[in-house]
Specification:
With about 475 residues, the chain is of the alpha/beta class. The protein folds into three domains: about 160 residues, Rossmann fold (3-Layer(aba) Sandwich), CATH 3.40.50.620; about 110 residues, Alpha Horseshoe (Serine Threonine Protein Phosphatase 5, Tetratricopeptide repeat), CATH 1.25.40.80; about 140 residues, DNA Cyclobutane Dipyrimidine Photolyase, subunit A, domain 3 (Orthogonal Bundle), CATH 1.10.579.10. About 45% of the residues lie in helices and about 5% in strands. Strands 1-6-5-2-3-4 form a six-stranded mixed β-sheet, with helices on both faces. The longest helix has 21 residues. The two termini are about 40 Å apart.
């Protein structure tokens, strides 16, 4: 939803919201301010799969305290999100198992719903109609924006969205920013204040509550086989799970702790561009689904100090949050019109330039172009569900130079990334993909074929800068 749809978003816009602590008000937006009358406060959990450092859960708990009502957490997995597959479903369900246990330990009622044949229906609407308030996360990408809008248009229950992903709340960014150095400087003081503040969980004051007459049969994930559940769903079964990257809070923090204890964070500034060692934290998928807390990671990196943690924080707080804030201003992130005018103009002006190589969608998906570095990058996506950021930029730029038009390039980049990458459909993903088309960048002269004044980056040149044998061995390693 376009941020400009809301007036003065940092100020409380409902009487109930006025009663919340300030740090919760500045993260929550009121989409519909109806009379809060109902049986419970409904937290529709989607992209903050954790029961700690979770601003949306805290907003729900604080509002419930004011209303004298319990909180019920509705967590569900649809078959209808873009590129739904065994890969994404498995990772999400593994995360759901962890958050289900964490909510139980905190005394918060929840019941998981898995959409599959014989278990479908408008259960969210049914529950929302009974609720005094619906709270969910504010992640400004499709289909979440459209699903949220559809819900608040269908019910007379107030609906709030809460920023759970960023240290600097997206709502503090009052106009779109498309350069990292501007974003860094303009919000530096506020960012440091938010970083020092950290996060404290709101206490649970009401007893655990689950409606006695749920409109669906809940799934106890602790007693179910994940693979069997996934097999029941009508999704793409051709994209396999990543067994070496388990979803969930426990696995996410284990990866972070291994990265830190192994010297990864300390040496991040020096090693981060090496694509064939554990030079980066590889946490983007866990951050995308909110399985781990950005507040906790940022605080630990801040306290450690040094060039490595400082550079890692720059990636987390500047480039990642720049992409989130930018997405919040886009009416349709899948439109070519989101690109800078200069980039769109130069790409279209060179659309007729000769392509020295073209490939079918199938050749691209299956890493069969014959370009050694590019194919290795694509195999990384296919086999590991991730792609090192330094080679991802070259991978993306090469797609732009092979595609018949900038529109086709944008489509291919989004499709290849979102289908295979575990962090697909994230604001940070869109920021990185669209950088290949000129976003967050400036013109570079002289003009060159196909790209025009969009920054160039060829796989042939990149291959000369790295040990391609080592990178292929890293990609093709047994896991």
């Amino acid at each position: 939803m376009n941020r400009n749809d809301f007036m003065n978003p940092i100020q409380p816009t409902s009487r109930l919201q006025e009663q919340l602590p300030k740090h919760l008000v500045e993260r929550s937006r009121v989409l519909s301010d109806h009379d809060p009358s109902g049986e419970f406060v409904l937290y529709w959990l989607r992209t903050a799969q954790r029961a700690h450092d979770n601003p949306a859960l805290d907003v729900a708990l604080a509002a419930a305290d004011q209303l004298g009502l319990p909180v019920f957490v509705y967590h569900a997995l649809s078959e209808r999100y873009p590129h739904a597959s065994d890969r994404h479903h498995t990772f999400i369900l593994e995360g759901a198992l962890d958050v289900q246990g964490e909510l139980k330990d905190r005394g918060i009622g929840t019941a998981f719903h898995l959409e599959r044949p014989g278990h479908r229906g408008a259960h969210l609407v049914t529950l929302a109609q009974r609720a005094a308030l619906v709270v969910t996360e504010d992640l400004p990408v499709p289909p979440l924006v459209q699903w949220t809008r559809r819900l608040h248009e269908r019910v007379q229950t107030p609906v709030w969205v809460v920023d759970t992903a960023c240290i600097l709340p997206m709502m503090f960014v009052q106009e779109p920013v498309d350069r990292a150095f501007i974003f860094r400087k303009k919000y530096d003081a506020r960012r440091k204040k938010q970083l020092r503040a950290g996060w404290s969980d709101h206490p649970v004051k009401q007893p655990a509550f689950i409606p006695s007459d749920l409109p669906y049969e809940p799934v106890n994930l602790a007693s179910q086989n994940t693979a069997e559940l996934v097999a029941q769903c009508s999704i793409d079964h051709s994209v396999s799970p990543i067994t070496a990257t388990r979803g969930g809070t426990q696995a996410g923090y284990a990866r972070w702790e291994a990265f830190c204890s192994g010297g990864g964070l300390e040496h991040y500034a020096a090693r981060r561009n090496s694509p064939y060692v554990d030079s980066v934290s590889r946490l983007s998928a866990y951050l995308h689904y909110g399985m781990i807390s950005p507040f906790r990671l940022a605080d630990q990196a801040r306290q450690m100090g040094g060039k490595g943690p400082e550079k890692w924080l720059d990636e987390l707080l500047i480039w990642r949050e720049l992409a989130h804030a930018w997405c919040a201003f886009q009416a349709d992130v899948h439109s070519m019109e989101v690109l800078p005018d200069w980039a769109l103009k130069t790409l279209r002006a060179h659309q007729g330039d000769t392509r020295h190589a073209t490939y079918t969608d199938e050749q691209l998906h299956q890493a069969q172009t014959g370009d050694r570095l590019w194919d290795a990058c694509q195999r990384s996506l296919l086999r590991h569900g991730e792609l090192h950021n330094n080679v991802r930029m070259t991978w993306g730029k090469q797609v732009v130079q092979w595609a018949a038009s900038p529109e086709q390039a944008r489509r291919l980049l989004v499709e290849l990334n979102n289908r295979y990458a575990l962090d697909g459909r994230d604001p940070n993903s869109y920021g990185g993909l669209y950088w290949c088309l000129g976003l967050f960048d400036r013109p570079f002269k002289p003009e060159q074929p196909i790209l025009g004044t969009v920054r160039g980056r060829s796989s042939a040149a990149h291959e000369q800068r790295i040990d391609i044998d080592a990178y292929e061995a890293w990609v093709d390693r047994l896991v």
